[in-house]
Amino acid sequence: MKKCIILGSTGSIGTSSLDVIKSNSGHFRAVGLSAGSSVGKMCEQVLEFKPEAVSMSDSGAAYELRERVGHHTMVYEGIEGMIEMIRSLDADAVINGLVGSVGVLPTLTALEYDKDVLLANKETMVMAGRLVIEAAARFKKRIVPIDSEMSAIYQCLKGESSKTLKRLILTASGGPFVDYSAEKLKFVTVKQALNHPTWSMGVKNTIDSATMMNKGLEVIEARWLFNVPGTEIDVTIHRDSIAHSLVEFIDGSLIAQLSKPDMRLAIQYAMTDPERLQSPYGGIDFSSPFSLTFEPPDFDRFPCLALAYEALERGGTAPAALNGANERAVEAFVNGNITFMDIPETIRRVIENHRFIEEPNIDDLITTDLEAKRFTSVLVES
Amino acid sequence: MKKCIILGSTGSIGTSSLDVIKSNSGHFRAVGLSAGSSVGKMCEQVLEFKPEAVSMSDSGAAYELRERVGHHTMVYEGIEGMIEMIRSLDADAVINGLVGSVGVLPTLTALEYDKDVLLANKETMVMAGRLVIEAAARFKKRIVPIDSEMSAIYQCLKGESSKTLKRLILTASGGPFVDYSAEKLKFVTVKQALNHPTWSMGVKNTIDSATMMNKGLEVIEARWLFNVPGTEIDVTIHRDSIAHSLVEFIDGSLIAQLSKPDMRLAIQYAMTDPERLQSPYGGIDFSSPFSLTFEPPDFDRFPCLALAYEALERGGTAPAALNGANERAVEAFVNGNITFMDIPETIRRVIENHRFIEEPNIDDLITTDLEAKRFTSVLVES
């Protein structure tokens, strides 16, 4: 029985993870849950999964939850409470389904307190990839990705020696605007941007998919997860969302992972790695004709992708600045303060003007994140 | 330095294998070569690769070769000579690039005499798959496929536990007649059948590709190589010849192997497994758009495929009868004795009328092969 703590349990990764646990109740148990302020949802999850502890980022929500379930379940409060819960609970793995830079400290804490990290929170690796990988090595714990593209690469690399890896090819759906002209992209509305063709995700991830920043963040994430320089990571537009990424080896052979799009498949895989368990997800029907298409991405129409490659190339605090600026710029777009094409423009200005540090420690990265967000707020309000 | 014996060295698998050895001369050495009657080609290979011994099936050819290179190189003669060469030479692996049922005994001999078998000769597994797999286990030697589809599956299974395997999906180019109507297939000429869309192979394999018997033989081969029942092996028409086969696991995840079609890639992989070496083959260009298509095969228009599934299901000597009948029927078609659609019809009659043995030993299988060929000859001449 594998004991899991789920961070962001009421979000899309969290609820999918609980689905997987429910379907495999003989194999997994949720011993800890964390959420922001969704008391109602959390209350239901506590009643159904009976975790030992939960944590709510919002103090009011924590108070209300204590009233409703507190006599059976320990309720932690705030980010510090979530960190404390990770430290205290006896668990094998932490499923990090948090969104944004808030995911970094829980990841580092989990590794330090003897827990594997099943990671959906790509911002963790974008901000502090080098430090996270070093921590995993130091504490001899694993980081298993549960993002579908990263999981695909992870699966493709099974049984292969890392020195034979030549190139990663990340597939991207292209988002809802893949065919929009540069002119048309200027007038994209929030409603249009929130309409993703294949995956059902949270607001932040959906907008990132529309700008293709999600793929940029994944390029940076892949750089650290798989120890491959950015120059050897390519992106291909694959509208069908069936091939979830590919790996090319030095002999010219490519290995790809495919399935119907369902994030529960990658979540379950991360929970069972290196084994596999029966599941109703995935599968592909070969009894009817189908085709898979691949096209190169357009860096001019989707400058967020180019920005991510540039930040990765520059290194140091640049990816953290990119990530912080992106989080705030996406909020500003959703709130109607800036246009769709202002997102990359704003991020570019923040990266160019941020206080660059070549070899940042975790405090430097957290500061970079905060400063990037603050500067972005100033830019979007001016 | 890995020492290899190449059976069928002047054929397409043989010359490709020697290409790979030439490109990686620091890693591999050809210590033995065998061919049928191509003295000229063999003479060139002896001068270039300086093997310790060679063998010619044809006695006259062996005599002529001895005259030309005999003072430097041991020249064996006949099938018995080839078997003797395999026994005598100190080598790590035998590359079996023979065509047809003649490949069975060399395979069994290689395993018994402490050599891995890198296998292109699918008829070996079709005829005697169970016995070959048992021999490999008994002598603790490996059978590594170098057929592109089997190699793909072999690569997709790396690092995976065999109990998590759910289904194999073999890709087939469909051959030159994939779009022909049943009516049009009746009037196919030998010249049309010898024109394969993507792969350059010998005559037998090219006709097998046109009838889709090649895929049927691979289904049977895969059953033994990967220990999967025929009911869990599917075939998909994939005209692009880029995805060389796929494996579906119990969790619904599929792993595929892809590359530009070049048989040297699979040959090199078999020689380096589980490692990989740099190569100029394979690779896929993602800088231009492309698509991969998959369609179900038509068992009515391509009855050879259905026959293979039926023979596998029946078991015992049925696959050996199928294989023997097919070899002779293909010859009869190439010689103009029967029509294209007579090939499956003839094979069906041979299987139905052969002396069925449920649990054949190797002598039974060789007898089945001979009798099937003899009966086929009678049928095609009547």
What does this structure look like?
- The structure is a homodimer of 382-residue chains.
- With 382 residues, chain A is an alpha/beta fold.
- Chain A has a domain of 144 residues: NAD(P)-binding Rossmann-like Domain (Rossmann fold, 3-Layer(aba) Sandwich).
- Chain A contains 16 helices and 12 strands.
- In chain A, the strands form 2 sheets. A 7-stranded parallel sheet of chain A has the order 4-3-2-1-5-6-7, with helices on both faces. A 4-stranded mixed sheet of chain A has the order 9-8-10-11, with helices on one face.
- In chain A, α1 packs across α12 and α14 runs antiparallel to α15.
- The longest helix of chain A has 20 residues.
- The model of chain A has no long low-confidence stretch (mean pLDDT 95).
Q: Name the CATH superfamily assignment of the domain at 2-145 in chain A.
A: NAD(P)-binding Rossmann-like Domain
- Structural class estimated from helices and strands of chain A: alpha/beta
Number of helices of chain A: 16
The biggest sheet of chain A amounts to: 7 strands, parallel
Q: Ranges of chain A with pLDDT <50 over ≥5 residues?
A: none
Mean of residue pLDDT values of chain A: 95
Tell me the overall shape of chain A: globular
Q: In CATH terms, what is the architecture of the domain at 2-145 in chain A?
A: 3-Layer(aba) Sandwich
Radius of gyration of chain A: 20 Å
The CATH topology of the domain at 2-145 in chain A: Rossmann fold
Major sheet: arrangement of strands of chain A: 4-3-2-1-5-6-7
Oligomeric state, counting identical vs distinct chains: homodimer
Q: List the helices and strands of chain A in order.
A: EHEHEHEHEHEHEHEHHHHEEEHEHHHH
Q: Tell me the β content of chain A.
A: 15-25%
- The rounded distance between the terminal residues' Cα atoms of chain A is 54 Å
Helix content of chain A: 40-55%
